[in-house]
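Quick question: what would this complex look like in 3D?
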Amino acid sequence: MTLTLTNVTKTVAGETHLADVSTELHPGGFYILLGPTLAGKTSLMRLMAGLDRPTEGQIEMDGRDVTRVPVRKRNVAMVYQQFINYPSFTVYDNIASPLRRSGMRAEQVDTKVREAAETLKMSHLLDRLPGELSGGQQQRTALARAMVKDSEVLLLDEPLVNLDYKLREELRVELREIFARRSAIVVYATTEPEEALIMGGNTLVLHQGRVLQQGPTTDVFRHPASMQVGRSFSDPPMNYAAGDVRQDGNGNREAVLAGGIRLPLLGHLARLAPGRYHFGARASHLSVKRNREDDLSFKAAVTLSEISGSETFVHVDFGEDHDWVCQEEGVHRFELGQQIDVFVNPRDVYAFDTDGWLVASPVRDKTRQAAQ
Amino acid sequence: MDRWPDHKAWFLVLPVAVLVAFSAIIPLMTVVNYSLQDVLGGTYFFVGAEWFEQLLHSDALHGALQRQFIFSFTVLAIEMPLGVAIALALPRRGWQVSLCLVLVALPLLIPWNVVGTIWQIFGRSDIGLGGWTLNELGIAYNYTSNSVDAWLTIVVMEVWHWTPLVVLLAYAGLQAIPDAYYQAAKIDGASAWAVFRYIQLPKMRGVLTIALLLRFMDSFMIYTEPFVVTGGGPGNSTTFLSQYLTRLAVGQFDLGPAAAFSIIYFLIILVFCYVFYRALEGIGKGAP
C-alpha cells in the first residue's frame, strides 16, 4: 500500500506546523523524518496516522483519498517517545490487546503474541506488569504491541530517545533487522543525524514544517540540497563561510574566504564560475593536523574544547564571527584562546550559491576513500 | 587501650527529645493516667481497666461507632465516584481550567464551623432557602426533628464540602497522563469507557488511594459541622464518635471514661492509618 501526501499543510491557531508537504511512501520502505524539535515530525506523523486532518492538501492510500478517514478506520500503529502501555495489563495482555480488539481467535492471538515477544526478546517477561519493567523493556512491549498488529503504516516517533545510550544502540540494531523483514511502511522520526545514517533507508529532512529534501539517506547526507539541510543533517551542524571565486589574468581561479583564507579550487570545486558562494565543511572533515598533502590550513583561536567519548570537539574562531567546530578523533587538550592551525581538504568542501542552494558537492572517489 | 564510648552525641538529640516529650508523650501519658483512675474530690483512686470495660460494653459507644462507620462509608461512596466524574468533566486546557478549579475548590476555603452555619441556616424550614423550598414543594423536611432529614443534611453538607478535594486530586492525576496515551488509545480504536477503565483509572490509582485515605480519616473524625448543624440530634441520631467524646469529657466531666475513650478512638485511627500506609506502599509497585 502506497501512502501519498499531496501539498499537505497544517495550521493550528494561525501557526503553521506543516507547509506544503508532498511525499510518497512505498510499502516495505523505511522512512526517516529528520529534523530538530518543532520541525514538524510529530505533526506529520499525526496526519499520516489520521489523528489530525490537514488544513489543506490530500492524503491517499493506494490512490484512495483517506484525508478525512478517522484513525480507527485506518490500519496504523504508533510508538511514542514515552513508554505507552496499559498500566494494569500484563505484557502479554498488552501485546494481545490490538489483536483481541480485532476479534481474532484466542489460539491465533497466543501464537502471534509469543512470536512478537520472541522477536523482541521478551518471552520471559510476559507475566509482568509494565510498572515492573525497565524503560527498555517497557518500550519493547510498546514496540511488540505496535508490530503484532500487522498494520500497513507503522509510525515510530523518536522511540529510543528516552532510553540510555547502551540500550538505544542495542535496540536500534534490532529494529533495523526487524523492519527489513516487514512489508509495512515504516516511518521513523529522529532528531539525530547519526541515527538516520545508522538506520539507512530514505530520509526526509524537515525544518520549520517544510520538507527540505527527501531521498535515500546516504544521498541526502552526501548531497545536501541546501545549507539548511547541511545544518540539519550534520551534528555538529555544517560549518559555513562566505567566499568569492576570482579569476586572474591567466584564467586561474581560486576562492577567497572570510578571514582571507585562500581556498584552491580542487576536484569538484574546479567548475565554479567566478562569483559569490557559501562554502561548507563538516566538522568531521576539519582537523587540527595535516592529513593529506593538499590540505588547506588556516589559523584560528580556540574558543571551546569539549571531549565527547573518544572524540574532541574544538570550537575555533577565525575572525569576523566565524565559529567553526572541528571534530578530532582522540582526546586532545587545548588552551582557551590558543592559536592553532586548522586543516581542511578542499576536496571535502561543499559550495552553495548565495540563495543557499547546493552548487558543488564532493565526489565520492573510491580510490581516495581507499587512500584515507 | 582504653575505649570510653562517647555519649556527647546524646546532647544533640536532647532538643528533639524534649520537644517530643512535651508535645506528644506527656499529654498522651496524662490521658493514659486519667483513663486508669477515678477522681473524687481531689483524691485519685486506681481503678485499673474499669473504664475500658465499661466503655466497651456501653451501648452509647456502640451506637456512635456504628453511626460513624455508616457515615464514613456513605460519604466515601458518594464523594469518590462523584469527584472522579467531576474531574473527568473539567476542561483539560485553556483559560477555563483555572476558573473551574477555583470554583470547585471554593468550599474547601470556608472555615469548618462556617460551613456548618451555612447549612444550618440553609436547611431551616422557616427561613432557610433549602429547607423552606423543600417544604413549599410539599416535602416535609425538618432536620431538627426528623433523624433521616438530619442525616441527609449532614451527608449532603459533607459531600458539598469535601468532594472538591477528591476532584482536585483526581484532576491532578488525570493531568499527569501524557497525551500519547490518548493518542495510542485512539489508534487502538478504544472506546471512551475503555480509555477510562484501562488508562485513566489505573493511572489515577495512586492519587485516588490518597484521596480515599484523607477522606476516610477526616470523615471519621468529623466534629465541627454536625456540632453546629444538629448538635448530634435529634436524639442521638447524628452523634458520631467525636460528639460522644466531647459530651463525655466536657458535658458530663467524666474524665476517666473520656480518657479511656480517647485512647480507644486513637487506637482505631492508628490501626486504619497503618492499614492505609501499607496500602499506599503497595501502590508504588503495582502501577507505573
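Answer marked as accepted. Residues 3 and 61 of chain A are 5 Å apart (CA to CA).
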